[in-house]
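Dear all,

This email documents one entry for the complex benchmark we are building for the journal club exercise. For each entry we list the sequence lines for every component of the assembly. Then comes the predicted three-dimensional structure of the complex as a token string, followed by one or two observations. Please use this as the template for your own entries, and keep the labels exactly as they appear.
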Amino acid sequence: MLWALLLVPLGMSGVLWILPKAAAKAAATIGALAEVAVWAAVLVRAPHRLALVWNWIPEWGIRFHLGVDGLSLFLLGLSAVLTWAAVFVSPAERGRTYFFWLLLLEFATMGLFLALNLFVFYLFWEAILIPIFFLLSAAPRPQARAAALKWLIMNLVGSLFMLVGIVAVAVIHAEVTGRYTFEIAALAGTPWPAGSVGWLLTAFLIAFAIKAPLWPLHGWMPEAYSEAPAPVTALLAGVLSKAGIFGLLRVLLPLFGPALVPLRMGLLVWAAVDLVYGALVALRQKDTKLVAAYASMSHLGMIALGVFSLTRAGILGATFQMVAHGLMVGGLFILLGWLEEATGTRELGRLGGLSRHLPRLAAYFQFFALAVLGLPGLPGFVGEYLIVQGLVAGAVGFAVVAVIVLVVAAWYMLRLFQGTMQGPPPTAPAPGRDLGPRQLAFVLPMAGLILLLGVWPASITSRAAPTLYRAVGLVGHAAVGTGIGKGGMR
Amino acid sequence: MVYLLPKILVAGGALMSLLATLGLPRWRNGAFWVALVLLLAAGVDAAVLWQAEGNLSLLVAGSMIADPFSSLVDLLVVAAGVSSLLLSWNGDRYGPEFPALVAVAVLGMMMVAEAGNLIWLFLGVEVLSLPLYVLAASERTALGGEAGLKYLLLGAFSSGILLFGMALLYGATGTTLFVRYPNLPLGTGFGLYGVGFLLVLVGLGFKVAMVPFHMWVPDVYEGSPTPVTNLMAFGTKVGAAAAILRLVAYGFYPQAQWWSPLIGYLAVLTMIVGNLLALPQRDLKRLLAYSGIGHAGFLLVGIAAHNFLGSMAAVFYLVPYGLAAIGAFALIRLVEGNGEGVQLDDLEGLAYAHPWAAALFIVVMLSLAGIPLTAGFIGKFYLLQAALVANQTGLAVGLVVGTLVGLAAYLRPLQRMFARSRSERVQAFRWSWAGGAVLVVAACGTLFLGVYPSPMMHIVDQSANFFWLR
């Protein structure tokens, strides 16, 4: 079953080259849909333990170990759904190579979320970079090439130091226990020597923060987000940014949970700075896509706050918010792409009053904007509520900051909506067509899914919670006596 | 005698292909086919010998060390020679003696790796270098002439240093049989013996392109015909790296406490300088030249780590590097057609005009950059483990920094391929079966090693078990 999650996108990306060029998009859509179906089958079977182990490189104690638990289950779904969305809304003229890279990207993200072995984790962690690099390189504007290089190099700076960290973790573990292994579960309880735990932690933390991105390591983000085609930006913000947070939960907490507790205040301040910085910068942007980009960065600060609160509520909230935020912000970027297509511009100053010409786009745009700003009844609210609950239990001051930023979030999202859809008519050339049936076929299911998560968050939380706490090391020997709180959760 | 068979086959290939150029003027490609078939036969024989060999045995009074390591190196240099021959397909312009000279150079590379005696080592270095001096200038262009002359002068210079070092070693020990050195009462100090060792290291450092002895590399690589550059980049590096590994692991392991840090510092310097200088290059061959320097640094990491894992990692790394190098040179050969040299701009539009060539090239370049799922990543991971197990964190960080610095160099050519315009070279692009075969084999091998490295690791494990490192 888990093989299928990897082989469907990989195989389909190969099949693309056999089929005629014109069929590329259709084939990619079928592949992405099949992946959603495979994920649905995994979801149905998820109460059972799903794992896959292959003794890959026995010389180094490396096993190709994949598994599904509460942490990864819904992120896999997010990746499947958003990839389908990205393929579905991309025009067929983008060509075969484009769809090939999209499917390969899905393969890499699926592998990352499934990995339970540090070597496998790293493998897919870097594999993610390549499709995005080529998708950006092939984008029309010359600036896109620079953005692509920046994306790759900044991310690799982080991940190569993480690579040193990974090998060092295995070597130190072997010195302590005599067993050379890269299994995350086996490495989890290791008593790290006091001298090395600091730099090991840093090596991992920086890699994850660059991918998310968290301030001040977000240098690649504005260019990559604005140069990429809208569906690719949706994937970047919706799925790939979650990879960084996922790394925190999958690797950092289990391996270094006890060591993180004394650092908690510093980490919380860091996440809070990112939260506030992203929100304030989003307020000042004149480019619609960049407003959403910095908004997304601010939300990642919020999710990181939930993780660093080191409480059950905060971590459950972060897990929920990752999925919800992915769907919402992915949809928002796709809508912004259509807006750009219809008007030919992204400048807020040249847009305005579009709701009269594009009523359907305006309606759905409003829905996604409200979801992103955290309106109760929609999933953004649920995630933020849980995170704030965790913060209240652990560090009340940060809960206050988070709630204040929620107000700023409402401000920048409404500014974006009002600036484009309401107010005086635009000075830009007359807008093109409103959403057609094909676009509605995308936007309706997405909106439905978001609404479902908003009114029935337990669909995720109840399935995720039990295995989640174990996966991130909140339950079990690693958590004993470390001061990791429950945050009001049972 | 059985052990000598691969060398005899290669030497026979050189002679018979010379005869073929004389005796059969009608059969134009005779020399090519004779050399190719005999090189392939030597490769098969080396593989058979690899399986047959157990522990090491000394032949010809210790001049030759017959062990799986020699056979593995034989296989690798034969691969280099075969790929160079294939890339020269239809290359009347390189002159009729081209295949014979390639075979002689391959013979020299084989000798270097098996030497247990300084004299044999020196002979090997000369047998490998002399044909390359000629080959570098074989196209009779101005750049080629410059390359040949530069290579000759610096090669003679480095040979002189090498020989001087060997003389000092002989003076200090009374024997040229370096495998005996650890048994001699030399202590662990420096002295005449140390100076001699350093000079030998410098002489071999020229061949492996170690910084600061790398100055000749870019000009020679750029000026030489592509098949010759391929032979230098893969074959010479394999031979020289194997010789250094053999020398330090067999002759000088008691003195590891001072040469291991020295090689470590040089390795870090080589990795960073090589990759840094690769960044601004516009000529693909120059870029690969600097990349070759950087990769020499990676190889030295394994040697400097001086443990079992390190020697295995260094030997393993030769394979990904070699595959990537021959793949890249095959693409250069395909793109350059009847011209010489490929600028980065010449690659524009290749991804749309010839997606398969572009895809294969992407694989080998990503391997050079060390991206996962390619062989290059496994090689770097191997070296990283060796450095950290040896508790040399500086070496590990240097390796990572070197990799980082070089990234943009490998990625910019790939980006050029996705440009919307098409260069003249791309428009004139023609597949040739030989170049295509080399490219396909290199890229498939790279992917296979990246996805399933276990078999190769087993081979390396068997080959590089220098017993005192265990």
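Observations: The beta strands of chain B are 57-59, 64-66. Chain B touches chain A through 33 residues (CB under 8 Å).
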